[in-house]
């Protein structure tokens, strides 16, 4: 079949347009970490993995995803919950209370947890399957006996700094990508505080898993979206 000039031009134009759209879509979906980017790997510890005292469902599934995407980052920070024995966040520290109940503390509402990530125990250790040799900082949080610390930036009282914001600023980091456990607690609080610190913030959904107690997971995503946290997947990151 022979095409006239108008048909040929129309076909070429539509092909070029389609190619342009595809190219733009690919560019939009591909985020390449640079020297101003850091990956924050939150609390991938034995207590939160299968068999742990506060195991997050499917928590072990984040490890291969985190290992893969970490190769794209020259800056990686690992965090550890690092609680004292008889920590204020433990249900066992409050006679008559059970895990997942809420109590009022001086700094606000506190979820009570099973004893977990006690300093120096195997449960507090990072997963042996993490393979991120270039990680340049392991930040321990929650070591003050009378205050919890979900966020990697600020303890639960909302004012005690972990020093992470200053560390990232000193290294010229302006973008953080957050992964780990659990989405609705330590990951979300870290992401929200990263935004408060003025950082472009991404949460890598398939590199996280949630606890989801009393609707906490849906609320966490809503709060993060409202704060300007970007929700992405590991496939959006260019290796």
From TrEMBL:
<dbReference type="InterPro" id="IPR036380">
    <property type="entry name" value="Isochorismatase-like_sf"/>
</dbReference>
<keyword id="KW-0662">Pyridine nucleotide biosynthesis</keyword>
<keyword id="KW-0732">Signal</keyword>
<feature type="domain" description="Isochorismatase-like">
    <location>
        <begin position="37"/>
        <end position="234"/>
    </location>
</feature>
<dbReference type="Pfam" id="PF00857">
    <property type="entry name" value="Isochorismatase"/>
</dbReference>
<dbReference type="GO" id="GO:0008936">
    <property type="term" value="F:nicotinamidase activity"/>
</dbReference>
<keyword id="KW-0378">Hydrolase</keyword>
<comment type="pathway">
    <text>Cofactor biosynthesis; nicotinate biosynthesis; nicotinate from nicotinamide: step 1/1.</text>
</comment>
<feature type="signal peptide">
    <location>
        <begin position="1"/>
        <end position="18"/>
    </location>
</feature>
<dbReference type="InterPro" id="IPR052347">
    <property type="entry name" value="Isochorismatase_Nicotinamidase"/>
</dbReference>
<protein>
    <recommendedName>
        <fullName>nicotinamidase</fullName>
        <ecNumber>3.5.1.19</ecNumber>
    </recommendedName>
</protein>
<dbReference type="InterPro" id="IPR000868">
    <property type="entry name" value="Isochorismatase-like_dom"/>
</dbReference>
<comment type="similarity">
    <text>Belongs to the isochorismatase family.</text>
</comment>
<keyword id="KW-0479">Metal-binding</keyword>
């Amino acid at each position: 079949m022979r095409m006239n000039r108008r048909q040929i031009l129309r076909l070429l134009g539509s092909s070029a347009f389609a190619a342009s759209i595809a190219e733009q879509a690919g560019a939009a979906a591909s985020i390449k970490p640079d020297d101003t980017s850091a990956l924050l790997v939150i609390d991938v510890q034995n207590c939160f993995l299968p068999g742990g005292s506060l195991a997050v469902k499917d928590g072990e599934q984040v490890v291969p995803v985190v290992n893969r995407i970490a190769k794209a980052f020259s800056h990686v920070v690992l965090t550890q919950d690092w609680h004292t024995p008889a920590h204020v966040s433990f249900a066992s520290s409050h006679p008559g209370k059970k895990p997942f109940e809420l109590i009022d503390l001086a700094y606000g509402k506190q979820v009570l947890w099973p004893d977990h990530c006690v300093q120096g125990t195997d449960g507090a250790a990072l997963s042996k399957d993490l393979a991120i040799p270039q990680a340049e900082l392991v930040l321990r949080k929650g070591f003050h006996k009378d205050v919890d610390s979900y966020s990697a930036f600020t303890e639960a009282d909302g004012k005690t700094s972990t020093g992470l914001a200053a560390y990232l600023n000193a290294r010229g980091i302006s973008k953080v990508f957050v992964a780990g456990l659990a989405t609705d607690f330590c990951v979300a609080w870290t992401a929200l505080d990263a935004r408060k610190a003025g950082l472009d913030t991404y949460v890598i959904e398939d590199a996280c898993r949630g606890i989801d107690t009393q609707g906490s997971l849906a609320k966490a995503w809503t709060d993060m979206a409202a704060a300007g946290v970007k929700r992405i997947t590991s496939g959006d990151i260019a290796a």
